[in-house]
Amino acid sequence: MSDDHNLDPHPSTSIEAYLRDWKSLPETIDRLAAPIEELYDAGEVSEAEGSLWETWQIFNSIVTQIPHDDPAQMKLVELLKGLKQRPTQGERPREIWGLSLWADLPMFGAVVREIWNDPAQLIKADDICLDPGVPGVMPDTDAIIRMRWIRNNAFIARLTTLPYALEFDLYAIWAMHTALEEQTEGSSREVLSRNVAAAGIWIFYAGEYIWRNNLEWEPKPL
Predict the structure, then answer these.
(1) Digit-coded pLDDT (tens) for 124-169
(2) Cα radius of gyration (the chain)
(3) Model pTM score
(4) Contact, 55 vs 110, CB < 8 A?
(5) Measured between alpha carbons, how far is 165 from 103 in angstroms, rounded to an integer?
(6) Which of 103, 99, 101, 90 lies closest to 164, judged by CA?
């Protein structure tokens, strides 16, 4: 292991340094990928899987901290692209969950799906506290979820339109279906607002892609 990798920067530290232009794209890719590769090559595959899962969780958490129209979101897209295009190294192929590391970005889709299954997990432990600016007032958790949900959808929509990224076409269909076609009885105003906003974000960032590819919701047969 090189001296540089012995520093073992936390993934969040490496990504933040990249977003602040303190580190280059190639250097950031290496800092994120090399420690995982070294674990894998040492035969510590389970540890490599755990490290990769944590990296993707951190990556997606950072996505939700960045406004959907901030150029930093595209920097994260480029970072994911760079990881996907990282050359294969070593004497044998590295695979996690039967997928190539890094060409298939294993586990990334699973982490994204976890968020989609339960948007409430966008609220972190640090969010559930008294607002320091307003003594005795709890933060508006619905507003926090809505904001982060919009940012997450914007990022996935950006990825969906690019030929080198993962395919998230189904998420576009889900967003539209949830906002416009599902039964709304019993849904709170906050949930409806969040779903409609997400659908709007998909139209904004991937509307042409959706139209060009004629993505449609196919109902289950009766």
Answers:
(1) 755 554 444 555 445 678 888 999 999 999 999 999 988 765 678 8
(2) 19
(3) 0.84
(4) no
(5) 10
(6) 103
What are 44's strand-pairing partners?
Answer: none
**Cα distances (Å, whole numbers) of residue 39 to 35, 44, 52, 94, 129:** 6, 5, 10, 11, 37
Residues in the chain: 222
Q: Are strands 95-96 and 99-100 parallel, antiparallel or unpaired?
A: antiparallel
User: Which of 49-58, 181-190, 195-204 shows the lowest per-residue confidence on average (mean pLDDT)?
Assistant: 181-190
Q: The dihedral of CA 13, 77, 103, 24: what is its sign?
A: negative
Residue with tokens 């150029």: 71
Q: Check residue 69 and report its DSSP letter.
A: T
Closest CA to 59 of 22, 87, 88, 18: 18
What CA–CA distance (Å, rounded) separates 18 from 12?
10
For the chain, how long is the longest CA-to-CA vector?
Answer: 61
Using CA atoms, how far apart are residues 55 and 33, in angstroms rounded to an integer? 9
Q: Of the candidates 144, 130, 33, which has an alpha carbon nearest to the alpha carbon of residue 79?
A: 33
Tokens standing for residue 133? 């600016």
Structure tokens, 167: 């395919």
